Request: fold
Amino acid sequence: MTINDVARECGVAASTVSRAFSRPGRVSAATAERIKEAAERLGYRATPLSLRTVTGQTGMIGLVVSDVTNPVYFPLIRGAEAAATERDWMTLLTDAQESARKERDGIDRSLTAVDGLLLAGTRMSDASIRLVAQQLPVVVCNRAVTGVHSVVADNARGIRRAVEHLADLGHTTITYVAGPEASWADGVRWRALREATYELEMRAVRVGPFPPTVDGGVSAVQALRRLDPTAVIAYNDLLAIGLLRGLAAAGVAVPSDVSVIGFDNIFGSDFCTPGLTTVAIPLRGLGGEAVARLAAQIDGGAGHQIRPTVVPTRLVVRDSTAPRRAQHRRARSSPPT
Amino acid sequence: MTINDVARECGVAASTVSRAFSRPGRVSAATAERIKEAAERLGYRATPLSLRTVTGQTGMIGLVVSDVTNPVYFPLIRGAEAAATERDWMTLLTDAQESARKERDGIDRSLTAVDGLLLAGTRMSDASIRLVAQQLPVVVCNRAVTGVHSVVADNARGIRRAVEHLADLGHTTITYVAGPEASWADGVRWRALREATYELEMRAVRVGPFPPTVDGGVSAVQALRRLDPTAVIAYNDLLAIGLLRGLAAAGVAVPSDVSVIGFDNIFGSDFCTPGLTTVAIPLRGLGGEAVARLAAQIDGGAGHQIRPTVVPTRLVVRDSTAPRRAQHRRARSSPPT
DNA sequence: CTGAAAGCGCTAACAT
DNA sequence: ATGTTAGCGCTTTCAG
Reply:
């Protein structure tokens, strides 16, 4: 069923059928009606991909995530999907599976298929990203790359809130459990932590890096125990949840022995034990915002301001944080109160 | 950069360039080399979407999920993604957002863009699915539809194992907390539960339906408390995790007062409290298998056996199941042992 | 308001 | 082994 079949059926030219669909108003109401009716009857469906050859547009955007399996992306994907659908775009999903090569390949293959690209959690270098952005509209999520449009969370403010919260609870030293070194967010969070602790006259300690997974968190506990911290902020919730498990297994009580704070407020951070105090990012909104920025580039052409869009963060206090324990926990035999 | 630019650069015909890429061996090694070099230099990239007009193929498959936010789909999406990439296909993702209309729309829009369609957790009627399957290759995940290719988990065996496990623990009555009525899996699981309990001379009780979400599970607790069950099997893990939370809030101890079993083994079922005993589905494999079946249809043409591919399930025993409590729990004031 | 014709990037006959 | 030609489904001039 092509546009020609519909045209023949209605006794009009193919171009008229085309106009009836893509240029409403440039065709008389009567014929437009007739055409739509015939199209419906014949079961004709527009083939947006044909446009690629003639207009250069495909009506699709690419979404490359570093790992579809990571719960952080759930709301982000949905937000992007919804915003794309609203603009009548379809979403081409690519899972990099935490592999730089797969990511590059996926981007390469997307390049000619999409009108724009969303990069979420990319592991590529800034230079590589800029190279891609030269070829088509790109928006990077949760990372700032000079010269490339991006949408980032207000990491610094989130960390600041977390540190203040711990300060209120009487903590004086905060241990940061670091995520991957290639992660832009990890750098920003650690820096913000140092600044905030400095201002509040606290101490900051860093351990890691660790893989940003539950298992990574479990394995981090060993390093942590030597430090015997009273307050920990983890790079993200996955790591924090792993910490919770590892600490429980080691007989360290959270939050009475040590307070733990995560980042992202992912699915599961509310029903782990204890419920995780964490910095929430409006990931859904972030995804939508990213698509909006992409749309601005695609429709509006080049230029505009290239400064990152910043979405706010907030601290969600649950049960993994508590006042600092009075004395040193070495006397493991001390009876519980 | 088109095929023509490369052709001009090399002093050959466009068709030769085309052949150099898509029909290796039908062009002399020397020219092939020359062409590839020039293409590289000019930054030419193949545009697979153009093929749609001439070959009818797009090199993309569609993946429609009822809710991208549901953790069950993550391994499935990844499995499908990986299998598709292996075959050099790209994945067009559509999120139905639990809305039948959005699902229909998404499918409609995919129809002309993809070579085949994977339906995961579809809410459509069997008839509608068959209608779609008439228009292009379709594989349904986790649901059997006569006349349509499908990949399903061995729900019955999973339930059977769960029931046996509870029987071993001395339980005599099992309460099933049902999921959505439109869900094929819900029907199958409940039926299997009835059969298994019948064989083992136990009793089966059903409550619900409830939305298959954590909140749904929390709200199900009210209905459950009237029944005062000793063993519960929930439609899925989301529901089961909600149950765990609701029961804890109501002061009912799991597993000593009541055993709870879920289904799916989703992310989070291991770190909720207590760890959830659940029936695991190899979702990743299921997604890969579904793509394989799709490939068989696309390449191999029509026909073949249309019987569902069945992937195995297994029971993962964690901490939410225990021997049946000795006496009736009404005396809420009885001291803990 | 509508038709005719050209052309998008590419491949598939059909020649040579 | 390679060039020529036609044509895929669609939009876009350009006429009328």
Remarks:
- Chain B has twelve helices and twelve strands.
